[in-house]
Amino acid sequence: MRLDKQAATRLIEASEWFRELPPAVVQQLVALARVRPVADGERLFARGDEADGFYGVMQGQVRISSLGADGRELLVAVFEPGAWFGEISMFDDLPRTHDATAQGDAELLLIPKLSFRQLLDDDPSLYPHFMRMLCRKLRRSFGYIDSAAFLPLKGRLAYRLVELVDLHGQPQPDGAITIGLHLPQEELARMISATRPSVSRVLKALEAEGSIALAYGRVSVLDLPRLRALADGEDADSSV
């Protein structure tokens, strides 16, 4: 598939990974990039695969997940247009850490690993920028670990909802923030390694207290400070 260089430039310039880079480097990345179409349900890569590059989503969605020994799926993230993923293996030369699967037909921008590494080797001054980005992601991962270890289910769900607002929030005229993803309760349960009935119970409790509003496959946040407080463990009621 032919690369739309203007679309590729916009995708790269809008990314937190690349937007602070000099324009000349952005154009080098565009020159390296190629388009990869994937069909609905097609696996882009599996855990343990050798990394082929860094992916940006141009159209569609990609779900990042892993399977436990009991066959349960942990849904780590759903990436929409503008998001980039696959960066870990670009730097440590180890296999992929999770599965990546197209959720609907998708069109991705691929920056090949070997070409990207050559770009960095040619200009080592770029390394500190990407190290800062990796550290930012590491801090986010520590947040996941803390929430899983110390928060009750209500706090864990609030933590994930806050993150989804930060990544996919769509402000509404009435002050609500709609999460711009189709979010069945089963998917939310997979995101925090919980059961659907327990997540449904907590969602209804959050709705009853006025923190969120629920619609079919959609969640709107009405009281973001309240959710942030729950995500920080500031809740005396840990019964749900």
Quick structural summary:
By secondary structure, the protein is of the alpha+beta class. It is built from nine helices and twelve strands.
State the fourth-level CATH superfamily of the largest domain. Jelly Rolls
How many β-strands, per DSSP?
12
Distance between the termini: 50 Å
Protein structure class: alpha+beta
- Secondary-structure element pattern, one letter each: HHEEEEEEHEEHHHEEHHEEH
Low-confidence stretches: none
Q: Kindly report the spatial arrangement of strands forming the biggest sheet.
A: 1-8-3-6
Task: Characterize the main sheet.
Answer: 4 strands, antiparallel
By CATH, the topology of the largest domain is Jelly Rolls
Question: What's the architecture of the largest domain in CATH terms?
Answer: Sandwich
**Radius of gyration, taken over Cα atoms and rounded to an integer in Å:** 19 Å
Shape: globular
Estimated share of beta-strand residues? 15-25%
Helical content (DSSP H or I, runs of 4+): 40-55%
Q: What is the residue-averaged pLDDT?
A: 90
CATH class term of the largest domain: Mainly Beta
Number of helices: 9
